[in-house]
Design a protein that fits this description.
The protein is 72% helix and 0% strand. It contains ten helices and no strands.
Length: 282
């Protein structure tokens, strides 16, 4: 009598290839769902970019519809606005990336075993941001002259004040983002890009603040950048230097830089007390 064939034990490989593939796919999907569920910055970023693009270009459209006479003169204004906006954007990004590079390299704990003080690190980040911003913006400003016959240098001595105010505001954003990364880890690193672009529609980069709804205008006037871009348009369209706008921008920047520096140092104090400096990294 022939003995019965042995029963084959169940194993994952005994399932059909299609079913096994879906198991792996669902597993990978669940992994990322769990990450998103525990990371509010990542969830925010999903809806952030489409919403910001809609808001920004919506206000630009409203502005051109209501001020069609400006369209013929818009080329120089828009190019100058883009160049000045890049000062704010690069000022923030250069500071944030200089700080994030130390975290990515897991070097933060080693740095602070040296006599380096936190406020000395802040000063070094500000100086690095200035150098990186100058390197980044200068070629674009020079190329705009032969390509578009637009020179941002026509703003005269006011250009230095505009540059300084936008750079300092970028520093403020960068210090706040760096402080949040210290406190909440690399899950907050995307804020280096998210927060600064949130200022663009409110700053009136491409249109006057009067284009915004009445209820939103007071929020815009709380930003130094709004005064800078209004001052830029006053020079390019009317040939007038609005010293009142520049003074308000400087006053707000002094306040914000003091507050953002204090915020970063406070976050650093918390991170050091909780041992987070040695836990940062990719």
């Amino acid at each position: 009598m022939t003995p019965p064939a042995p029963t084959r034990a169940w194993s994952p490989t005994s399932r059909s290839p299609a079913a096994l593939a879906w198991t792996r796919i669902v597993g990978m999907m669940l992994r990322h769902v769990y990450v998103l569920r525990r990371s509010w910055p990542r969830l925010l970023e999903l809806a952030y970019w489409p919403t910001m693009q809609m808001i920004l270009w919506g206000f630009i459209t409203v502005f051109f519809v209501e001020h069609s006479s400006w369209v013929a003169r818009a080329a120089g204004v828009l190019v100058s606005a883009v160049l000045l906006w890049d000062v704010l954007f690069l000022g923030n990004l250069a500071l944030s990336l200089s700080f994030l590079e130390e975290i990515w390299a897991r070097n933060l704990g080693q740095i602070f075993t040296s006599p380096l003080r936190p406020y000395e690190m802040v000063v070094s980040l500000l100086i690095l941001s200035l150098a990186r911003t100058l390197i980044g913006v200068s070629p674009a400003a020079l190329l705009a002259i032969p390509l578009y016959d637009v020179s941002v240098f026509k703003l005269g001595p006011s250009l230095v004040v505009f540059f300084a105010n936008l750079l300092v505001l970028g520093w403020c954003v960068g210090l706040i983002v760096s402080g949040l990364v210290l406190r909440f880890g690399l899950a907050a690193e995307s804020l280096a890009w998210v927060v600064v672009f949130m200022l663009s529609p409110l700053s009136g980069v491409y249109y006057p603040i009067a284009t915004l709804p009445d209820w939103l205008q007071p929020v815009s006037w709380s930003l130094p950048s709004a005064y800078v871009f209004e001052g830029m348009r006053a020079i390019l369209f009317d040939g007038v230097v609005r010293f009142d706008l520049l003074i308000r921008a400087v006053g707000l920047n002094v306040l914000y830089l003091t507050a953002s520096s204090a915020f970063f140092l406070y976050m650093f104090h918390i991170a050091r007390r909780r041992g987070l400096l040695l836990q940062q990294g990719e």
